[in-house]
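ok trying again, last paste got cut off:
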Amino acid sequence: MSTARWFGLVLSGLFCACDATQTAGPATFVDNPAMVDQTAALAIHLVDVGQGDGMVIKTPSGVVIALDGGPDRTGNYADYLKKLNITRVDYVILSHGHSDHYTGLGTAIGLLPKDCEARVFDPGFARPDIPGYQYIRDTAGCRYRSLTLNQSLLLDPKLDLQVIGVTNTPYPQNDGTGINNTSAILRLRYGNFSMLFTGDAQTEAEKNLYMNFPMQLAANVLKVGHHGSCNATGTSLLKAIAPSYALISSGGPADPNNFGHPHCQTLDKLRTSGVHYFRTDQNGDIMVLSDGNVFSIMPGRGTVDTTACPRACAQPSDF
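nice, full thing came through this time. structure:
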């Protein structure tokens, strides 16, 4: 079955005060997406936005969540929403205030209901001096809320989205690394399936995550932090998450990648840990589909575990 056909299988909903269903054991990976029950399917799309992050989540109830929107230099994120025939977005989450994550979200915010419900979330680090970020905040208006640590966003009776890492204060300094470390780190759980989204969190934020939530890290799939940088995906954290698959969003040939992501050190860690991976620079748009018991991953092109890496970085950090 083609990936394009599966894009249309799952397409609002409200925050729910009830508990997400918790069942035993991890979900099982299946090569054939036809083995996923499409009537109960959760779809997570990692969009090939070039050097940035952009995701679309569609819950079994039809709730549409935009999680980061990429740099949108070529309209990739907006085009992908059109490809999925999305005319309404229910919620928008920005992992942190960097343009390669927020620019494309303007399109998603434009598709939100015109109300004052809490619909647009980020870590709360205001950047009034940055017009692009301020546009996102201003466009959100009364629908904006800042995320808080250990907050649960329940978007479906069987779906739980927990904030296990976030801060409104950059650290260790107020610089690019510091802003990366404000990233909202989210753990999604749907039945037996779980996925961890780490934004651009670097070593310092990962250490805090590892110390504060040691029993809540296990996940079937990891969205690798900071585009596969050598200053993320710490060895200890990777061991605690123990994913079977990882997804990396980074720039490819059509979007020159001056950062060298994903770094060779990160790919080496994944391979050493027995974690399979897909990456947007090699695999294009990537979709994860799960019914809560099994899950499947469909790349737009290419194969799993591509070994080529742009370069090793000179000053890696790890823990």
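cool. Residues 108 and 175 are 27 Å apart (CA to CA). The longest strand covers residues 159-165.
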